[in-house]
Structures are given as structure tokens and as C-alpha cells.
Automatic annotation (TrEMBL), chains A, B:
InterPro entries per record: Cbl_synth_CobH/CbiC, CobH/CbiC_sf
GO biological process, one term: cobalamin biosynthetic process
UniProt protein name: Precorrin-8X methylmutase
Molecular function in Gene Ontology: precorrin-8X methylmutase activity
Pfam families for this protein: CbiC (PF02570)
Functional pathway: Cofactor biosynthesis; adenosylcobalamin biosynthesis
Superkingdom of source: Bacteria
Family membership noted in the UniProt record: Belongs to the CobH/CbiC family.
Electron transport keyword on record: no
UniProt source species: Anaerotruncus massiliensis (ex Liu et al. 2021)
Protein's UniProt keywords contain Isomerase: yes
PANTHER family: COBALT-PRECORRIN-8 METHYLMUTASE
Cobalamin biosynthesis precorrin-8X methylmutase CobH/CbiC domain ranges (all copies): 12-208
Length: 214, 214
């Protein structure tokens, strides 16, 4: 049991982790733009997967747009309870925002059944009626992302920004490309990879950058 | 917007995804043991990361041991609310179990502060007093895993099994090796990768295999 383990508290571990990530990115010859670097690094911190240094795509100005929405008290809408659990709600509340996830709502389940669709789609429909600026964080369901693109192109939704990082093997790559073509401010993990943990990490990185901290 | 998207419902998407994963594993020349294959595939399904086909390690008999505990109504203890959110609680409840996570408890925060340790450590201490069989699912904090190893070696905890899949850059690799050497039945993602989503996926795969389904 007497392996060499460093005795560090969480804040130290996080700082040390980001130093390691920065050094390894440099070693790989990857130079990230100053504005997006903390977001990419936090996703790598969450996944230990350097693929995200290549796959994360930011539409022009999306970081400032998303932060302006959060500063205005935007609600963050997720497509899983896991993403909701992973978002720092204390930090979000500082700006007046909260996380909304309708996936477990009985009316969403009923609506999905009635329309022969997924709960993810029905939950996006429900979210589109929310007032105020909205930041969507989709880490699981490509159907949620596709529905968001439809709502936007029909003129029935104008989100401040969409974080589109569902994970998977069916319709996932295509749904992300749809979002990238939609013209809406977005952060996308191109390819198959992503997840609720990645969605939450991106929201948290946006928030932490606003706090002047990490 | 008229890209070729397949119109499939979640159950179809999942089946199709597992077919793709199985085919790609075969294409890579990877043959998984029958007992552990559904667990490895579910982790790949959750992450779209085939590295887990190589990094997931199962101690002998751990799948049957963990399932016996779940069948006996074992509680599943997590080190994050995210892992708790990701575990299929309906499925778990069918066998009489529930998920416990003490990370947000005020006494855990107070205990961590008093002892100069992490909340993850304090939450494992609290969990060690739970009655009945326990299945630990650690997807985030290496300190939680290290504390579990200490409690076990001191004779103060005898978990049915430990899922040790924390993610990160500091003490993570070492903590997992400690667990592998502890002799306790365990499932470990060797190396840096892992996460709350991976921990939840492993618990769910154990449960789904008991239901005779997926």
C-alpha cells in the first residue's frame, strides 16, 4: 500500500492536472487559441482524452456569446440528468441561471409516446417554450440536436448558443454537422465522441472563465 | 437540413450501436470473453472510445460476485452525483438496491474540512458504515479509491466489489493499481481514462445482464 502518492487537495490536483495537460498539448505541437483553450483543457481534464484538442469546434464568437447569455441569467437546458448533475449549479446561480432538464417529466414521456418520437425530442420541444436566453447542452441524444436544428430553422427557437456533444454511433456525426451548418452559435465535438460529462465540462469552463478563476 | 438521417427509436439505436461496436471490435481483431464483453461494449457505447477494450480489467469472478451482491439488494455507492444520475435506478430497485452518494452531505463537507482531507474520502468513510452488501462505483476521485483500499486493508470495510474507474492526471493511475493489488473483487479502467459516465455504464451493464435483456 505504500506506493508514492502525492498528498494534494482537490484545488492542487486540478492545478497540477492542468499543468500536465498544457505540457502534453505543447509536446504534441498543439497550440490552442487563448479564448477556447481553457474549455478544451477542461474537457481533456474530464475525459483524459486528447482527441478533444482536435475535435472541438467553436463557431466564431460563441464563447463571448454564450458568456453574455449566462451573465444575463440564461437557463442551461440539458438532455440528461447526468449533465444536469455535472454542471456547477452554485456557479451558475451566481449569475441568476439554473439548469433545466425535462427528460424525466411525465408530460414529456407522454408526448414522446403520442408522437412516436424520443423523450429527448419532446424535452427539447418543452424547453423551446422557456422564457429568456437559453443555452442548450446536449451530451447524449442526437435526436435532441436534430430537433433543435428543426426548431431553429422553423423560427420557433432562437437559443443563445448550443453545445452539441452527443456521443455515439448512429446519427451522431450527422446531427453535429447539421448543427454546425445551422448558423447558430455552437460548440461541437466533431465525430462520435462526446457525452454528458463533456457537455457539463464545457458549461463549467464557460462559467469558471467568467469568475476570473480557473 | 435534408441529410440522410435514420429514423430510429432509442431501443433500435442502441441495438444498431452495439452491432457497430461488435463489428469494429472484430475488425480490430479484439475478442472479448463472453462474460465481460457486454460490459466493455456498454462502456464503448457510452464513450465511443475503443481504448476501453484494452484498458478494462476484471478480477477473476468479479462479474458474478457483483451480480450476486446486486441480486441480494446491494446498495451502489458513488463518488459523484453524476454517476448516481447515470445509474438506472429503476433497474436497480427491481433487485431491492438503491444508489447512495454522500458527496453533498453537510457532515461530509465538515468532516473533510476538520481532517484536512477531501469530501470524497469523507464520503467513503461515511459509506463504510452502511449495512448490507455494498458495491462501490468510483468514477472521479482517486482519493476515494485510495481510502477504500485503506479501509479494506485495515479490516474496516469488506465491499462485495469495487468499480475503480476515476479519470485524471494526478494519482489516478497509481490509485487504480493499488485497487488491483488489494485482492478485492474489482473492475478497473487501467490508465488515466474513466469517469462518472464509465462508472455508471458498468453498473448498468451488470444490471442489464441480470435482466436477461441487453
Amino acid at each position: 500500500m505504500k506506493r508514492e502518492l502525492e498528498h494534494l487537495l482537490p484545488a492542487d490536483i486540478e492545478r497540477r492536472s492542468f499543468e500536465i495537460i498544457s505540457a502534453e498539448l505543447e509536446g504534441r505541437g498543439i497550440v490552442l487559441p487563448e479564448e477556447t483553450a481553457p474549455i478544451v483543457k477542461r474537457v481533456i481534464h474530464t475525459t483524459a482524452d486528447f482527441d478533444y484538442a482536435e475535435s472541438l469546434v467553436f463557431s466564431p464568437g460563441v464563447v463571448e456569446t454564450a458568456r453574455a447569455a449566462l451573465r444575463a441569467g440564461a437557463a442551461v437546458v440539458t438532455d440528461t440528468q447526468m449533465a444536469r448533475a455535472g454542471i456547477n449549479k452554485t456557479s451558475l446561480a451566481r449569475f441568476g441561471g439554473e439548469v433545466r432538464c425535462f427528460m424525466s417529466d411525465p408530460d414529456v414521456a407522454a408526448g414522446a409516446k403520442e408522437n412516436g418520437t424520443t423523450r429527448a425530442v419532446a424535452s427539447m420541444d418543452k424547453a423551446s417554450a422557456l422564457p429568456g436566453p437559453l443555452l442548450f447542452a446536449v451530451g447524449n441524444a442526437p435526436t435532441a440536436l436534430i430537433r433543435l436544428c428543426e426548431l431553429i430553422s422553423e423560427g420557433n427557437l432562437r437559443p443563445a448558443a448550443v453545445i452539441g456533444v452527443p456521443v455515439g454511433f448512429v446519427n451522431v456525426v450527422e446531427a453535429k454537422e447539421l448543427l454546425l451548418e445551422s448558423g447558430v452559435p455552437c460548440i461541437v465535438a466533431r465525430g462520435r465522441k462526446g457525452g454528458s460529462n463533456v457537455a457539463a465540462a464545457i458549461v463549467n469552463a464557460l462559467l469558471y472563465g467568467m469568475e476570473g478563476g480557473r
